[in-house]
Amino acid sequence: MDAHWVLTVIVLWSCSLSIASGMETQRDNAIELVDLEPSVESTRPPYYDKAKRARYMVHKANWGVIATVSTKPEMLGRPFPAPNSLADGPVGNGSGTPYFYLAMIDSTMHDVAKNPNVSVTLSEAEFSNIADCAVTSKSDPENPLCARLVLLGKFVEVTDSAEMAFAKNALFSRHPLMPSWPSSHDFRIIKLDIDVLWIIDFYGGGTFISVQDYYNANP
Hints:
This protein is α+β, with helices and mostly antiparallel strands. It is built from 5 helices and 7 strands; from the N terminus they run ααβββαββαββα. A hairpin with a 6-residue loop joins β6 (187-200) and β7.
């Protein structure tokens, strides 16, 4: 085998390795892109329609984090966050108002008795089909494209009979275990009377949404 032939073999072998490596890289990238392909419901509003995105999130969420001002001596006056189930209406019939089924013996309601001002925080990371929220090399729940919504207002016990019927149907239809919770814990239906909304769903920082725009939005 002469030197020219050996050189040709080496060049061809190097080219084949380079092609194989490129194909492997393309395959890996394709796999990652497939993993990140949005399998999002068509009802997810675009980032620039922030009021509609907020309404969508509140209706789709099954739980959120309630933060109260603690009355416990060990953390007096400090924020006390606690995850709780919620519903703003039966599936497909959202009102925009988050309702909760909370026990009066719960620490959250002890705080509310002294100070009804609370915040409720939601993240699209709760929704399993949002690619922007997946934990990968290209996305994360802290990614601005994974929307985070904070609702501030006062907790109010629902007493109106029509609203009570709506809220109870909303909560019990979406959380079927709730009716079996012990009556001795004094569960009551509580709503958040919203006065401030803040959302981040894109690059460039968060945005405040007017309460009127929020309730006028039709997700």
